[in-house]
Design a protein that fits this description.
With 453 residues, the chain is α+β, with helices and mostly antiparallel strands. The protein folds into 3 domains: 86 residues, Integrase, DNA-binding domain (Double Stranded RNA Binding Domain); 117 residues; 185 residues, Intergrase catalytic core (hpI Integrase, Chain A), CATH 1.10.443. It contains 17 helices and 10 strands. The longest helix is centred in the N-terminal third of the chain and has 29 residues.
Length: 453
């Protein structure tokens, strides 16, 4: 059969042996929107040519009586051989009754599933790599106790100290601060916070101080509980990791302290405190016994909170924001004799500007009085016991001390400052009598003296 002339008109109704030259000179007639150049070799393969000159491959057949059409790309980007190879593949599938689209949809679904699984694994790996240090700042921000608006300032400050990296120049003494007990845990991934890991950590920290290590453990267990309450961390953490038997067995005794000044010890204690070189510390320690205030409450007392005219003290309170108590005569003279260095009543040259730690001063006074085991907090308990001995009602003592209101005993109800005043003055007088202090309420501040018993 003679090869058609290269200039002969193309019969679009017939099939053709596709060549580059044929496809290059094929054009769409002016009276048609498009024409198809059909391949004689691969049934169903054709080149679609539009009036605008576009040329694109397509494959067409029927699957179970339904028309199936597939675009194969433009020519000459997709060559004749490439188009025939794809048409051959599609023909093979369709002749078996297989719809290529089903397989492709499955492939796309498998591909999407693989991509999703990979992304999920990356996210899982990322989540699994979250360390204690990564979310500790969030815990400090959101981990406040239930039904509380914020952390208690003292506890919040302790959390910072416990987790501090150290390496800072000491305020007192020489050298740099050591890392806080919780700091070594910051590098652990949440999933690595196990019983074994915490046991090793606790045993190491206990070498430096068992009570400090125990307190750090209690704080960290609070962090674990907080993590366990959040869906994003719940599966990563073992909230009971800090309760390993080996740890609990080594915790120091949790016996509640009951230390307080005995009546017979009060004169010696008072004399020892009176002889301290640090006058501010001396007055501070006496004020703790005379008011029953918590040490931080009294340490933060400012001059603006002392009302000498109406004889009142406004103290920062653990339960409520503040509480107001009477300013008794002896305590008023003690405070009035202190120098006004800054805003704080118990001022110091420290960075905080106020007294912060009087344990060393108290230890000197205890040594002088030959008293063992009396803590700063024991002074608060001493006020309560001495108040009872003075005959003050339990409710009045509790209100002065800032204890949470209770309906026990006398059927507790808050008293006004003036209603509290006789009771607190009575307690002060009893304490001074037991301490052997002669006090003249009309005397100048310098006229206070201790009389040996």
């Amino acid at each position: 059969m003679a090869r058609p002339s290269k200039t002969a008109a193309i019969d679009f109704a017939a099939t053709h042996d596709l060549t580059h030259g044929l496809l290059e000179r094929a054009t769409c007639p002016a009276d048609a929107p498009f024409v198809l150049v059909k391949d004689a070799d691969k049934k169903g393969l054709r080149l679609r040519i539009t009036k605008a000159g576009g040329k694109a491959w397509q494959f067409e057949t029927r699957i179970k009586g339904k028309l199936f059409t597939r675009a194969l790309g433009g020519w000459p980007a997709v060559s004749i051989d490439q188009a025939k190879a794809e048409a051959h593949r599609l023909r093979g599938l369709t002749e078996q009754g297989i719809d290529p689209r089903e397989g492709e949809r499955q492939q796309e679904a498998d591909k999407a599933a693989a991509i999703a699984a990979h992304a999920a694994q990356l996210e899982a790996d990322k989540v699994a790599a979250i360390t204690v240090g990564d979310i500790w700042p969030r815990y400090l921000q959101e981990g406040k106790p239930k039904r509380k608006d914020a952390w208690k300032p003292g506890y919040r400050a302790s959390l910072d100290v416990m987790a501090a990296p150290g390496g800072v120049k000491k305020v007192r003494g020489q050298g740099l601060t050591r890392p806080g007990p919780i700091f070594p845990l910051m590098a652990l991934a949440l999933g690595d916070v196990t019983e074994d890991a915490l046991q090793i950590w606790f045993e190491r920290e206990a070498l430096a101080g068992k009570h400090q290590a125990a307190r750090a453990l209690m704080m960290f267990r609070g962090f674990l509980r907080w993590c366990a309450a959040r869906p994003e961390y719940r599966k990563l953490i073992d909230r009971d990791a800090g309760k390993a038997p080996a740890i609990l067995e080594n915790l120091p005794s949790n016996t509640k302290r009951t230390d307080a000044i005995e009546a017979a010890q009060l004169p010696g204690w008072w004399q020892g405190v009176e002889q301290l070189n640090n006058r501010t510390a001396s007055v501070y320690l006496k004020a703790l016994v005379l008011t029953g205030a918590r040490k931080e409450e009294l340490a933060g007392l400012t001059w603006a909170q002392v009302d000498f005219q109406w004889r009142k003290l406004t103290i920062a309170d653990k339960v409520d924001q503040t509480r107001t108590i009477p300013l008794t005569p002896y305590l008023a003279q003690l405070l009035g004799a202190l120098p006004r260095i800054n805003e704080f009543v118990f001022a110091s040259a420290s960075k905080a500007g106020r007294i912060s730690d009087t344990r060393s001063s108290h230890a000197k006074a205890l040594q002088s009085a030959a008293i063992d085991g009396l803590t700063i907090h024991g002074l608060r308990r001493s006020f309560s016991l001495l108040g009872e001995a003075a005959g003050a009602p339990a409710g009045a003592i509790a209100q002065v001390m800032g204890h949470k209101p209770s309906a026990t005993a006398e059927g507790y109800r808050p008293r006004s400052v003036d209603a509290l005043r006789p009771y607190l003055e009575k307690i002060e007088a009893h304490i001074l009598e037991q301490a052997g202090v002669t006090f003249d309420a009309k005397a100048a501040p310098g006229a206070l003296r201790v009389v040996a018993g």
